[in-house]
Amino acid sequence: MKRRVVITGLGAITALGEGSEAFWKAAVEGRSGIGFLDMAFASGQWKIPAALVRDFLPEKFVPQRKALKVMARDIQLAVAGATLAFNDSGLREKPFDHERFGVIVGSGVLNHELDELGYSVQHSLDENGKLDLQRFGDSGLSALFPLWLLKYLPNMSACHISVLLDLQGMNNTITTGASAGFQAVGEAMRIIQRGDADLMLSGGAESKVNAVGLSQYKVLGGMTEFSHSSTNDDYRPFDQSARGFVVGEGAGFLVLEELEHAKKRGARIYAELAGFGSSSMNGRQVAMQAALADAGVRASDLQYLQASGIGLKEEDRSEAQAIFDVFNGSGKNLSVSASKSVTGFTGFSSGPLDLILSTEALCRQTIPPVLNFIKAEKDWGFQIVKGQPMQKKLRYAMTNASGFSGQAVSAVTKVYEG
C-alpha cells in the first residue's frame, strides 16, 4: 500500500512579495507584479515588461555572506523559497531525522551576468576588437572569477539548500525546462510513497529578468511586444486577444511529508497530494488522466483546475483542448484559473507556485480569477474564472505545468479530511 503524502509547508518568492500569503492576496485581489525595466544596449534603450522581485535581500536567508559569491540569483531565490517553506512547516522548532529528509529541485540553464562575461571577453579581443577564440581559451577563461562555474551549475540549488538546512536525505535535480520544478515535486512525492524518505523539500526557482535571459526569450519568440504606454493588462492567458507572455522571476517550494509522520508531530496539513502524472507536450491529456488515475479520482469529481496558462495562443489552445478532452466536453462544473498574469512566467518555479496557489485555494475554498481574462476564442466546455474570486465548495483540485516543447505535468490534490 502506498504511503500517503501531505503538504505541510509553503514557500513563495514572487514579484508580489515574500511568502505564500503575499502571493495569494495579490491573486485574489487581481494585482500584478509586472512592471517595466529599462535596459541600455549599444543599439539603444530597451524598455521591456517584466515581473522583478524587488528589494530581495538574500543575506536574510544565507548567514554565510561568502556563500553568496557562488550563488547566482536563481540559487539565492531557491534558498530563500526553500527556507520559507521549511520555516512554514514548523520543522525548525521540532526534532526530525535529518537522514530521512531530502531535497529535489527543478533547475536548468542559469544565466550569467553580463559584467562577468564582459570581463572575460575583454581579455579575448584581437587587434581589431573582435572576439578571438584562441585568446579566449588562453586568457579569457582565466580572467573569470575562479569559482565562477559553481554559480551556474543547475545542481547547486539543491546542494546549498541541503547544506544550509542540514537535510541529509535523498538529493537530486530535475532539468526538464519550465516543468522541472513541478516534476521535482512529483518525484519527491514518489520517494515518500515508496518509503525512502519521510520528508522532502521540493520546488524550483528561476530568474530570467536579466539581459542574457531576456535576449534568449526574445530570440525564441513568444514575449509580448508591449508599447511603452502599455500596462500589465496586456498579459491575457486564455483570452482571445492573448499576445504572449511576460518574463518573471521567483521561487516556489513545498514541504511534502508522509501522513503519519505529519500527524505524529502535530503538523499543520494544508492538503493531501493524491496523484501525479507526466508526459510529453503532446501528452497533456495523458498527464492529466494519469494524475486522476493515480489519485483514484474521476474527472467528473474535479471542481477546480489551476492551469498552466502561459499566455501564448497555441499553448493555451492546446491546454484548453486537453482539458476539454479529459472532461469529455462536459466540464460545466469545472472552474479553471491561471496565475501567470500576476507573477509573470517564472520558468522552473511556475509549476510549484501554481501548486502553492491551488493548495491555498483548497484551504480557503476560494478560486482566484485569471487576471485580465475577458473572453476565450471559443466555448471550451468549462468555466474560466474572471473578474472576482469564486467561492466554491472544493474537495479536489488539479494543477498543470508545462514548458516550451518539453514535458507536461499534472497533479491532483484534495482537502485533507483528518
User: What CATH first level of the largest domain would be assigned?
Assistant: Alpha Beta
Overall mean confidence score, pLDDT: 91
N- and C-termini, Cα separation: 19 Å
User: What's the alpha carbon Rg, rounded to whole Å?
Assistant: 21 Å
CATH architecture of the largest domain: 3-Layer(aba) Sandwich
- N to C succession of SSEs: EEHEEHEHHHEHEHEHEHEHEHHEEEEE
Helix vs. strand class: alpha/beta
Please give the number of β-strands.
16
What's the arrangement of secondary structure elements?
Layout: E1 5-14, E2 17-18, H1 20-29, E3 35-41, E4 44-51, H2 73-88, E5 101-106, H3 114-122, H4 133-140, H5 156-165, E6 171-174, H6 180-193, E7 199-207, H7 211-220, E8 247-258, H8 259-264, E9 271-280, H9 284-295, E10 304-306, H10 313-326, E11 335-337, H11 340-343, H12 350-364, E12 366-367, E13 383-384, E14 390-391, E15 396-402, E16 407-414
Parallel strand pairs: 4-8, 5-6, 5-7, 10-11, 10-15, 11-13
Antiparallel strand pairs: 1-2, 1-8, 1-9, 3-4, 7-8, 9-16, 12-14, 15-16
Helix pairs in contact: 2-5, 6-12, 9-10
Describe the structure.
- With 418 residues, the protein is α/β, with parallel strands linked by helices.
- The protein has two domains: 5-111 and 152-414, Thiolase/Chalcone synthase (Peroxisomal Thiolase, Chain A, domain 1, 3-Layer(aba) Sandwich); 114-148, no CATH class.
- The chain has twelve helices and 16 strands.
- The protein has helices at residues 20-29, 73-88, 114-122, 133-140, 156-165, 180-193, 211-220, 259-264, 284-295, 313-326, 340-343, 350-364, and strands at residues 5-14, 17-18, 35-41, 44-51, 101-106, 171-174, 199-207, 247-258, 271-280, 304-306, 335-337, 366-367, 383-384, 390-391, 396-402, 407-414.
- The strands form two sheets. Strands 1, 2, 3, 4, 5, 6, 7, 8, 9, 10, 11, 13, 15 and 16 form a 14-stranded mixed sheet that branches. A two-stranded antiparallel ribbon has the order 12-14.
- Helix 2 packs parallel to helix 5.
- The chain is globular and about 70 Å long.
